[in-house]
Amino acid sequence: MQPTLRQLEAFARATYAPIGYLFLTEPPVESIPIPDFRTIAGVQIGRPSPDLLETIYVCQQRQEWYRDYARSIGEQPYEFVGSARLGDDVIATAARMRHTLGLDLEERREVPTWTDALRRFIGRTDEAGVLVMCSGVVLNNNHRRLDPEEFRGFAMADAYAPLVFVNGADTKAAQMFTLAHELAHIWLGQSALSDAQASRVPGNDVERWCNLVAAELLVPLDLVRAEYQSGPDLRSEIDRLARRFKVSSLVVLRRVYDAGALTFGEFQEAYEAERERLLAVPSGGGGNFYLTQAARVSKRFARALVVSTLEGQTLHRDAFRMLGFSKFSTFLELGRSLGVLA
Question: What string of DSSP letters covers 259-283?
Fold first, then answer.
């Protein structure tokens, strides 16, 4: 018995597949449109999920829109995109990135928690010109949660609209390292889909270099060597350094290992134990929808899109599609939360 058209439509909606695919003789092979550096045990990860593909596609649409917008208002290309080369000195590269992004280690020390430091890190990066999008779901669909085990982030290099996406379904601790890692890709001028983790020493030269730069950007190795106090209670010392540098305990563990204070086996065991502990910590409430929405699409992007739409340069239909909602009242409230509307 053949399914009815209505049944096929329902199946297509449930599987997030274009209905036309169901009439093909063979299922199409959808490839990831940016370089894929994700691996498990050194082996390339297979077929991407519809959630991952749609997230990349919508970010491509946003980036293309912002590139055209930036050119239309006379913005100049960002010199930092592609300014680094693979093999450049890690410490010098991280210092240049820190300067461009306006990241002050002593200023970070004054913020209350490393979660606040992460929020400031995202804000400074967005202000510097990188569109930072952090979401744990596809658009605003809370039924389509992104899987951190599939990917943790990706970078899309562009001179006018460099974009970094961070999987918001991952722990806050992991998000900080992911953002730093993807920024290293932007500095290389290379787009990439990554499974960046502070615990890994990737076999790929690009990923290994980006991991080293990310770690140095967050916590300079010379400061770790100067501050670390060896003793029997590793956990207490890691917590102390996390408070000192305002980064996650996972990043601190990686830097203590880089400083030579832990063997690789000790590091792996401590890292996995700490990651399990962080995963068990409740993430808290959803917060203000409009602040969350701005974080999901980048404040820089959201402000530009609202202004362009209100000026009649962008269709409301296109703006709503890129933002992931359909109500005009929601659009206006987003504009007010961003300070674009009174």
Answer: TTSS-HHHHHHHHHHHHHHHHTS--
Which tokens in the block code for residue 2?
Answer: 């053949």
The distance from CA 55 to its chain's CA centroid, rounded to whole angstroms, is 12
pLDDT digits (tens, 9 = 90+) for 96-147: 999 999 998 888 888 888 778 888 999 999 999 999 999 999 988 888 999 9
Predicted structure pTM score: 0.87
Does 116 share its domain with 224? yes
Considering only CA atoms, which of 114, 73, 294 is closest in space to residue 218?
A: 114
* Cα distance between residue 80 and residue 279, in whole Å: 35
Q: Is residue 9 part of a domain?
A: no
Query: With the CA atoms of 298, 217, 161 and 316 taken in that order, what torsion angle do they form, in degrees rounded to the nearest 10?
Result: 0
DSSP one-letter code for 82: T
Q: Give residues with Cβ within 8 angstroms of 203, minimum separation 6.
A: 39, 42
Q: Where are the alpha helices (H) located in 157-248, listed in sequence order?
A: 172-188, 205-218, 221-227, 234-245
CB atoms within 10 A of CB 128: 18
For residue 318, the enclosing domain spans: 294-337
Q: Please state the domain count of the chain.
A: 2
Extract the tokens encoding 170.
Answer: 């991952």
Judge if 148 and 267 occupy the same domain: yes
- Give the three-class secondary structure for 229: coil
Q: How far is CA 335 from the centre of its chain?
A: 23
Give the up-direction half-sphere exposure of residue 191: CA atoms within 13 A in the CB hemisphere.
15
